[in-house]
Model the fold of this input.
Amino acid sequence: MRILGFEKAWPKLDDEIFTTFRFPRRDLDWLSLELVQVVVNPRSKNRQPLGTAKILAVEPRRFQQNWRATPRAITWEEARLDGFESYEDMLEYMVKRYGEAVVSNRLINRITLKWEERFE
Done:
């Protein structure tokens, strides 16, 4: 079972169904119906497994270019559901975290997950 890691315990992880955005993997990209282990701080001695979740959907998206909505553009609502106050906050966070990949119009996966089992 593969690990889907988060750097912090986002409030969205309390929801039964939640989303996250990830760039496509070079080896084997995330697959619909795949079971994953959700972990906070996956590469730390403070690693915290939260449980297992099933990927319900993997949808390609892009960040908007020049503030125009383009096909498959990430919407304000998707940014809010992902835990950000606004689309601009999400964009700022993603640029800080991933740099050029965000502004180069690369596809990013919007992954929708549903908890199967939560660890206590």
Remarks:
- Helices lie at 76-81, 87-98, 100-103.
- The beta strands are 2-6, 17-22, 35-40, 48-61, 108-118.
